[in-house]
Fold each of these.
Amino acid sequence: MNNIIIDSSANYNKGGVYKLTIDKDINIKIESDSLVKLYLNILKNVRVNINAKSDAKIYNLTTEGIVINLNILDKVEVNLYNMSIADKEIVNTLNIYHKAKNSISHLYCYGVSYNEGNMKIVANSYINKGMTGVNCNQVSRTVNINNGTSVIEPNLYVDEFDSVANHSSYTGPFDDKYLFYLETKGISRDKAFNLLLKGFMKLDDLPKDFEKLLDEKIKNVIGR
Amino acid sequence: MMFVIDKLKVKPKDSEKIILDDFSLKIKDGEIHAIMGPNGVGKSTLSKVIMGSNHYDVIAGSIKYNDKELTTLTTDEIARCGIYIVMQEAPVIEGVSNSEALRTALRERGSLDTNLYTFITKMNKEIDALGLPKDSLHRFINKDMSGGEKKKNEVLGLKILKPSFIILDELDSGLDVDSLKVVANNINDYLKENQNTSVLIITHYSRILDLIKPNYVHKMNQGKIVESGDISLAKEIEKSGYNGINEMDVNKISE
């Protein structure tokens, strides 16, 4: 994994897997001939602007309030996975701007709010007039633990008939049928809950060190 | 050693309707019992109540396994007594792999072999025996699996966790003939190797009983067993139905 940061910008013009730890506002350019996988660990309340001209999968893990602006500038497919864990008041705002015809986006926002957590996920996707053939999707899920609360605001701003836009969102506890199933295997309710929580937050395949980072953050929730 | 249900009376948590009423059943070690009945007589409720589902209230009666009262135990404690259910509809659980769940289950039982290689070898052997996809070990529970594969996946758990009492809830639903044979053969192999293991088969149809042969067959209606016999009872039911239990009330339909 490589970090290529020049001042407050980072450029990725080769396909591959990259990891970036971010503690200040940053502009990221992705323009490659093959898939770029970018793993972000955002440490502070910052704004991240991403311009994507090639296929990309972007994974973000944070416990902070953040804004990510993703501009899709070519006929490409970009997946943005946002994993947030909150034990305080935070707002995650994810803006997806389709600025190219036939571009595709998948936005996944998964969050856990625990203890004194008050999490707000604002997911905005924009398809302006003339952006024909765009396919835009949002999936948002949050789980509240103890006194944690969360709100999801999914917004699809669509001004083009010839486009597809979908969203689904869910806030609440884990479905009892999952806990019951694991318990019927002899797994205690606490352990079953922990398995579900880890599984819930692990979106897609994550590199080992990024997964370890996620595990560390989840441990705080589990050891609540 | 025996599994005994005595005068069990059960209702759902959110309703006053009695589902199991004065239900009694005794199963000795190594015996296979089948409960047959049409939809809605409480067969699947029985399996969930045995497993301690919190969606039901036990109003009266008891369920004992090896003299241990199960109605006061939690679901995981019941499972750790050696009771395993092959669910009619096992859920898909994203993010939790078969391997992770079964290793956790073994660890909870205190019977996890610390050697990961041994565990993986054992899993792969059973995956092959069941004809499951090679990647089933690391696959999320039941993810991208057909109805038949889900049932096989449940039997995979059975062979790893080695229960002494097995509940098969509508095992044949969602299974094609070939898959049903594979699943039944694997369960029969397990029973041959573990001869004290008892089985409770819950089913609508007798075809599963041709493959896993019961010692006793019970007919269930309105929350209780109304008739018991051997395999010939299952054949009789197959031939003549549930003697009116399943017949529709024409007056009700016309209302």
Note: The first strand of chain A starts at residue 5 and ends at 6.
Amino acid sequence: MSTQAGKTIKTFLKNWISLVGILLLIVVFSILSQMRFGAQYFLTLTNWKTILLQTSTVAIVALGQSIMLMTGNFDLSLGRMLCLVSCVGAVLMRNLGWPTIPAILVMFLIGIVVGSINGALVSYVRVPAMIATLGTQYICYGISKLITQAVPIPKVAEGFSWLGRGYILNNTIPVSVIIMLALYIAAQFITTKTRIGRSLYAVGGSREAAFFSGINVKRIQFGTFVLGGILATFGGLVLMARLGSVAVTNGENYEFDAVIGSIIGGVSLTGGKGYVLGTMFGCIFLNVLFNGFSQLGVDPFVQDVLKGIVLVLAVVLDVLSNRKKD
Amino acid sequence: MGKDYILSLQGISKEFPGVKALDNVTIEVERGTIHGLVGENGAGKSTLIKVLAGIYQPNAGQILLEGQAQTFSSPIEARRAGISVVHQEIKLAEPLTVAENMFLGNILMKGRLVDWKGMRKRAREIVDDLGMDIDVNAQVSSLTVAKKQIVEIMHAINNNSKILIMDEPSAVLTNRELEVMFRIVRQLRERGITIIYISHRLNEVFDLCDNVSVLRDGKHIATKPIGELDRQSLINMMVGREMGQEYPKEPGTIGDTILKVEGLSRGFVRDISFEVKSGEVFGISGLVGAGRTELARAILGIDKPESGEIYVRGKKVHYHTFADAIRDGLGLIPEDRKLQGLVQIMSVERNTTLVNLKRVSQNGVLRKGLEKKLSAEYAQKLRVVTPSMDTQVQFLSGGNQQKVVIAKWLFQDADILFLDEPTRGIDVGAKAEIYRLIDQMVKDGKTIIMISSEMPELLGMCDRIMVMHEGRKMGELTAEEATQEKIMAMCV
């Protein structure tokens, strides 16, 4: 019985290690903050609003990425795709004077088109995901620079700034955080409790076996890329609402941060394992880490080094836990 | 005694956490013989080979090679001492040439440079010596599986091996290729090389071996000259109990034609016509590469037929995808259980329900309680041995994995089921259970189309057998008229 309990705890830790990591960081940083400044700057409502607000956009993009990872793919174009749709939206609204709603619809259309191109290349033409999405990444970035001449466009998203800056419940919880939570909870439900979710895991576990169980593997893979495009667009919308401007740096490195967040969150690189909700915690973990270090005055350039270390550590853990079973 | 033992294992034990894989095994192997090693899956054959090959170190016991005690701490040491292993999965450098592969780990040098000429010359000598038709400059990846295996054997010869261990070399070979391999193995014996031959196919053991050792549950049961054994006594030693009828087939209730194929062509499969009646077990025989799997794929909508017609229950059908065929009550237990049959990292429960998630869901949402209950019922019915329903299938034995694959299709309630090599790599005891399941399915009104390279099982289980060769139908035999000889005659 006790081994059973031990096993349950072990499984829990394995699936939700990022959550444990966040708790650890909270303890460490709040103590350090207290020691260094004699007051609590870390564990405050304001600071956590900032952390979660910053997490929300990348986490929305990471949701798409983690679903693709779960099915054994990934998409390197997500960040630049976010940038492209944001630039198109900004140009339409600011330079061409389009009303908000049609401009947003066009943004989503572009997200869907780029996602479809990625999906078609990977699942139907069978170009390796790395190459296909690296290609579209450059295409997206190039077009973004072309249509904006790489000049930032200010004062966008005035009609929907609440999406990025609004709060509910007495100014305590950012709207974008609610959106993030809602998307993740919905995705967690769909992936773990529905037929389509089970098929996703099956495809990630073994494309061949999924195919021989009558699952339309190509369509599912295609679908995850389209979903990735839609979520990247959504993330772009929230980001431009928060920043109030669009520049070609919007969404830079999001695709990698999304992968890092997913891996930390327990979504295995080999596919078929982990939970999307873990990805959200993984993204929060990363932002907590950087927020804590910034507060303590650690050089911001060190942060990239840290990100790399965290990624490698997470992958090593993943590889080791897979190896044990062989 | 007076016998010349080249290899003597004395009291070898090997423990893994929680398992005693080998328990005080003592076996002696005579020089220049073919020594069979048989046992069910999990009996300890693989562990024993790994101990001999230096991959595992025994916890107790001694290996004497030509009377000298040996301890191998790595495969290289075992190879240097003269023990080579031809593994079940071929381990060659595919992009390199035959000659290069034969000298892997043992490259000929001329001064400080590689002696390509010398290696090619020596490689050609070995090939000619064996009477093989293999171009030593060909890329290994361009060879058939059978020839790759021969390259592995030649690699061992080139290493001056005294003992060659062959781990289920026949699993992937066609009958004709098998004959070639047998000839080579016997040739090696003539030269004084000792062969340890592991196989699930008892016919081969009787054909080829001089002596045979039986392992069961990690223990050595007996070593006997083959002449003192018959098939039944060998099986009994392997499973440790009296085995019942190996093929339990009783005639089912045969009904109307349920599947009719007319002039079907796809790729090299040409103009195939046949009919299967409901309740029948219809066998498809032929060598590997005869087009049997390709035929099944074309019928099931996996590949698009180029011409021909398919009727299911009297209705003409055009399946665009495999999913269409599944909806129509057809199913396939694929050739490659590990890769195609199951999602290895998914649980027994989830694999069981995967083909028919509709049955355990409502409006697309899974009903976990129902899934748990139903999948457990199927596992029980099929006597799947598993620690729990949540255990990933990768931890199950081959036979139990195959039962889960069958459970999938019973769960889907497919009534026309294609079985492609359903007992490949499964041990005797589990095989009998699979046959029992097939018999049960037929009694439950299902129709089975069984593709197999093992003639005894086709003869034992089928009502009718169609023979294919190079993509064409060579003929059809009823259970009464079919014999191994007649089928073989049609295959060539």
Note: DSSP finds 17 helices and 24 strands in chain B.
